[in-house]
Write a structure and sequence with these properties.
Elements lengths: L1 H30 L20 E8 L4 E6 L5 E6 L13 H15 L6 E7 L5 H10 L3 E7 L17
Parallel strand pairs: 1-4, 4-5
Antiparallel strand pairs: 1-2, 2-3
Helix pairs in contact: 2-3
């Protein structure tokens, strides 16, 4: 008998809490003030707001790949010329690099990333175009660093040909 009374009291508490939430929402609508609600992703998880981060641009002879991370290195968004639909030699063009950056900028807008350090790797033709496109899409660049790997004398040279 006591268990039934406890359950009834609990359901009354829950319903009163729901009513209270509805009243608070209606008060906010009546006063005209916007209610501050954190943004949520598709899965219902709140999106963390990040103001500073890093963008890694890898420009090879065959493709241009761009990755946006927070300061700890956790990936926020990425894009590449192949992902954008470019095929063959068009993937490594400056035009493709600009489109890749535009796609990445659209992906990181909900996160609030606006100040970035850029790390460029590779010798492809999309390097400078990608950095220019960052500024054109409203992302302020605080520093640019070239992290292209250079050999310290590298592999052994092939033997000379005997003719």
């Amino acid at each position: 008998m006591a268990d039934k009374k406890d359950k009834i009291e609990e359901t009354e508490k829950v319903s009163s809490q729901k009513d209270a939430k509805v009243e608070v929402a209606s008060e906010a609508e009546a006063t005209g003030k916007k209610k501050v609600v954190p943004r949520k992703s598709k899965r219902g998880k709140a999106i963390k707001q990040i103001s500073q981060g890093r963008i890694y641009i890898q420009a090879t002879y065959n493709n241009t790949m761009v990755t946006a991370t927070d300061l700890n290195g956790n990936v926020i968004a990425w894009s590449s010329a192949g992902h954008m639909g470019f095929k063959g030699p068009r993937k490594s063009t400056p035009f493709a690099a600009g489109n890749v950056i535009r796609d990445l900028a659209d992906k990181i807008k909900p996160v609030g990333l606006n100040e970035v350090s850029v790390f460029v790797k590779g010798v492809g033709s999309g390097r400078e175009a990608a950095i220019r496109a960052l500024n054109a899409n409203g992302i302020s660049v605080s520093s640019i660093k070239d992290i292209t790997p250079l050999p310290h004398n590298g592999c052994r040279k092939p033997r000379p040909r005997r003719v």
